[in-house]
């Protein structure tokens, strides 16, 4: 498999950063307002008109500029492509936070090349904060009104000095991975539920060291992998394989990967529900 072309990646990264910001601005038309209804999908996760409008915008933009690329989003069916590139997006990661008026939700845009993600953008509309990366081009962090600066993970080397973040504590037990949570909580200095993609932003910018999700979809993971890797960290499944396709996520600053895997590896790949 040939590596992705650097100019092709740069072109897609440029579009991804601009489109993620524009899609995020669409969500702000509904954020902290009562002008929309909340629906629930078959898995009981919420969805709103803001999710759908933001994804439709991203689909249109990609179709206009890269008509041969594939597209996979959370809210609508997949569109096949012929170029070898596939865009993988989550218009609102953290819809539960969004509907509660909590600004720790993000618009996620990733671009795969032949099955591996090489471009990632996380944009947080309520905070006007972004982190983005492309393979071989570094990771960058942008706060409102400021110029981009390098995004780098922390240098913490001991788990008992680490900040551990996650999305939903109950999901560990719900998906058959219950023992991992209390073990990590006991091993780390601080535990907080600054979750969804915001937790991965924190690791990529050195404000946390460990982010763990017991279950996630490919659109939750795609944008995260290149950002963490280019920031000097790791994004893997619970067994330590660097993949976005195994339905679970583990981000670290790199130095703590093996220490965290000691707690997650025994439960890797388990997705049993609490009821059986």
List keywords for this structure.
alpha+beta, five-stranded mixed sheet, 31% helix, globular
What does this structure look like?
Helix 1 (6-28) packs antiparallel against helix 2 (49-65). The chain is globular. The strands form three sheets. Strands 3-4-5-6-7-8-9 form a seven-stranded mixed beta sheet, sandwiched between helices. Strands 11-10-12-14-13 form a five-stranded mixed beta sheet. The longest helix is centred in the N-terminal third of the chain and has 23 residues, at 6-28. It is built from nine helices and 14 strands. By secondary structure, the protein is α+β, with helices and mostly antiparallel strands. Helix content is 31%, strand content 24%.
Task: List the uncertain runs.
Answer: none
**Principal-axes shape call:** globular
The value of Rg in angstroms is 18 Å
Intertermini distance: 41 Å
* Main sheet strand line-up: 3-4-5-6-7-8-9
Mean pLDDT: 94
The number of strands is 14
SSE order: HEEHEEHEEEEEEHHEHEHHEEH
Q: What percentage of amino acids are in beta strands?
A: 15-25%
Brief account:
By secondary structure, the chain is of the alpha+beta class. It has helices at residues 6-28, 49-65, 95-99, 170-174, 180-187, 197-204, 218-221, 224-230, 257-264; strands at 39-40, 46-47, 70-73, 85-93, 106-113, 116-124, 129-134, 139-143, 149-150, 163-166, 190-192, 210-213, 234-236, 249-252.
């Amino acid at each position: 498999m040939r590596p992705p072309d650097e100019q092709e990646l740069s072109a897609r990264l440029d579009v991804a950063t601009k489109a993620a910001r524009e899609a995020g601005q669409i969500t702000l038309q509904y954020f902290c307002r009562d002008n929309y209804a909340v629906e629930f999908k078959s898995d009981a996760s919420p969805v709103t008109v803001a999710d759908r409008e933001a994804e439709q915008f991203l689909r249109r933009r990609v179709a206009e500029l890269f008509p041969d690329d594939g597209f996979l989003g959370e809210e609508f069916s997949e569109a096949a492509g012929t170029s070898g590139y596939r865009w993988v997006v989550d218009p609102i990661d953290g819809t539960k936070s969004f509907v509660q008026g909590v600004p720790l939700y993000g618009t996620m845009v990733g671009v795969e090349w032949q099955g591996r993600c090489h471009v990632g953008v996380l944009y947080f509309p309520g905070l006007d904060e972004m982190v983005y990366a492309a393979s071989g081009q570094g990771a960058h962090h942008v706060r409102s009104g400021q110029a981009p600066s390098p995004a780098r993970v922390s240098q913490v080397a001991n788990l008992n000095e680490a900040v551990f973040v996650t999305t939903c504590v109950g999901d560990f037990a719900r998906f058959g991975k219950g023992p991992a949570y209390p073990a990590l909580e006991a091993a780390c200095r601080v535990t907080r539920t600054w979750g969804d993609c915001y937790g991965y932003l924190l690791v990529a910018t050195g404000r946390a060291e460990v982010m763990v999700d017991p279950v996630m979809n490919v659109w939750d993971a795609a944008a995260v992998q290149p950002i963490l890797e280019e920031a000097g960290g790791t994004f893997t499944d619970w067994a330590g394989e660097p993949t976005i396709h195994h339905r679970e996520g583990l981000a670290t600053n790199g130095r703590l990967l093996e220490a965290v895997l000691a707690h997650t590896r025994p439960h890797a790949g388990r997705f049993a529900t609490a009821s059986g």
